[in-house]
Amino acid sequence: MQVAKELFDPEKSGAILKGMRVELITTGSELLLGQVLNAHPGYLSTRLAKMGLELARQTAVPDGRGAIREVLGEVWGRGGVVILTGGLGPTSDDLTREVVAEFLGKPLEEHPEIEKKILGYFAKRGLVAPDSVKVQSQVPKGMEVIPNDAGTAPGLLWEEKGKMLVVLPGPPRELAPMFEKYVEPRLRAYSRPAEWMRVVRVTGIGESAVQERCEEELRRLGFTAVGYCARPGEVDVRLRGADEKLLEAGVRRVREILGAAVYGDGAETMEEVVVRLAKRAGVKLATAESCTGGLVASRLTDVPGASEVFLGGWVTYSNEAKMRDLGVAGESLAKYGAVSGAVAGEMAAGARVRAGADWAVSVTGIAGPGGGNENKSVGLVYLGIAGPKGVETIEKKLVPERKVFKAMASQVALDLLRNKLLPQLLPKSEV
Amino acid sequence: MQVAKELFDPEKSGAILKGMRVELITTGSELLLGQVLNAHPGYLSTRLAKMGLELARQTAVPDGRGAIREVLGEVWGRGGVVILTGGLGPTSDDLTREVVAEFLGKPLEEHPEIEKKILGYFAKRGLVAPDSVKVQSQVPKGMEVIPNDAGTAPGLLWEEKGKMLVVLPGPPRELAPMFEKYVEPRLRAYSRPAEWMRVVRVTGIGESAVQERCEEELRRLGFTAVGYCARPGEVDVRLRGADEKLLEAGVRRVREILGAAVYGDGAETMEEVVVRLAKRAGVKLATAESCTGGLVASRLTDVPGASEVFLGGWVTYSNEAKMRDLGVAGESLAKYGAVSGAVAGEMAAGARVRAGADWAVSVTGIAGPGGGNENKSVGLVYLGIAGPKGVETIEKKLVPERKVFKAMASQVALDLLRNKLLPQLLPKSEV
Asked: Which of A2, A30, A421, B69 has the fewest CB atoms within 10 Å, i.e. is most exposed?
């Protein structure tokens, strides 16, 4: 892109910032009014971690000159790299460009090349640009422009005496490519060795049990601090250290202690692990879901290339659907109920045969808030796994909160698949 | 719960804080290392907004005495209510209890009643409590204890001269019930009238177009600031004002201007709207998904009571599944390809008939990153909607980024259902 090269040189180095502190300011009233989940801290810290950089702090403030000006002053005063997101759009509550210009004492100037690019962006889509979007072509005098290849609002960059201010638009699909293509090369000069943190991902064991079983061993190896993080259906063990060998030994030790409960030791999600194992084993998968309502299938299909191993699935919410689509016996439903091991087993077996899959997993349970009774309470779930050698079922009692329940149940389902696909467990012909 | 009543009186009033500022501090290295999405700001600000309270700022800091102490000092110095989350667990990186005790100058004391409750929590689940969990029964002298009915770590509360410090555990499923049951009654004394903000939710129109069509009219009505927030597949218009009549007039005006593109004006999500409309119309729904991989069904089943209207769905990722389960013609797949209006229409029609539903929606497209070609690029999607009067299909070009694409496509699918279920469009017999 022509404009990009002229206005922004990603190879330009910034020398003075070695070992720098990085802070993130996210602006936008929606982040503080309960409208929107703030995805920037997660995304940016993941990208920074890959460079050995770490967010020292993240602050969210509402749209508003005063609020943005105040926090920018505080954070800029602490030095290092400041990433400021949001408020570069065309609407009247987008104030970041003006506040930054004022804060740095730089007048806003029209930038005809950017205006041309913005008008072109609309024209290419057969749309007429509303007048309001033209404000996005204003640049505080002397700031570098970070091209926006996925939208209209360009980013801004300023560097002085060991400090860097990076201003990026709020929409994640615009921010992400800008950060990766233009900002990361500028930050890379100050990054630590790539190996300085490893996360071991564990499922099926609680947080305090994980610590009790691992921490002493890890301290003996030489780790001075170990971090833990529990989420629905999983616990992360976070190992940090400058020494690659130590990190490797730590990961190995946790794997030895916790065995198959460890499902990964990198950035890979459970669904990515399952898709990767299935590809390697050359097997096809199918799903049969009741209470998870399609979440297991949706997680599998979040993984690029899932279509190579995932044939499809059924969301059989009604009893009729379970019988008609999966061949569940009416007697089983009458005798044991839809939430039962018998029905889970028949669902998995039916899905496997009908889809022509090697492995099928099923879930049937009570997500709540309704549907429970004295015998079967909200949170109860049965899962089935059908493979070449037959069907197994398990019973679990999960958290009786609908969305947490769905997340946990989908995790158990994916973990059933993972365990069956672990290479040492597969018959030789399938590996 | 006995302990609760003795230690914490939710009716106790705090008088001095009227019109107070609320700030949130979330602790936890995982929030800054890219491991975890921070859900607390969204949840807490939603709850606060219902009381007319607003988060003035949210700050995330890593686990670490220095970092927590520093930010607590800054925020406590600004006054008002401070909510501090995370770091109350049993593992070695849980430091918040100690930092708060030190900061307020209160020694930690063992609290036998809490210890008894924690041991009981494990016993009830047939587990032996690891020694490490007992640290959670320590309380800084004189602080009130907020009972944790869903876990082991109690919360803490301190009130002095117009300031309040609320300390809550990190896991959302523990924090949420504690906040709603014990903290909200304490905050309610300082809340503004319930009606001070309305959010109008719009789908199918871009952010700048929404502003261009609405803002002048809203200013004319008397609104001094209007907020906008764009997410995949939707735009929020945020109206604020102390006057209920003005808010009502604003919502009505936006609805008049944007028509059916407005899908709601409260906290209701698109899937909640669809389930509510389907219940009112007494109709049954089904889904047939390819590229969204079950996300449409999963969103519908996120809604409590979805089982009353949602019969089930198919995730037909392979061509075979489309033919076998939905009756898509092999000729259509050969002639038009799986990503085509013809196939979308046949998928919807097949799902409707096979599920015995009144309405069925289908989605087939290219989520990427692979699968595109010169004729059909990543982001292309066809949707079908089948109802009593036949089948309609539409073509859309969405963002070629897998997860954003899935989110947008599922939104379009749900919106197709919504439009068909709007009461004025239903035949009288179905309303």
From this structure: A2
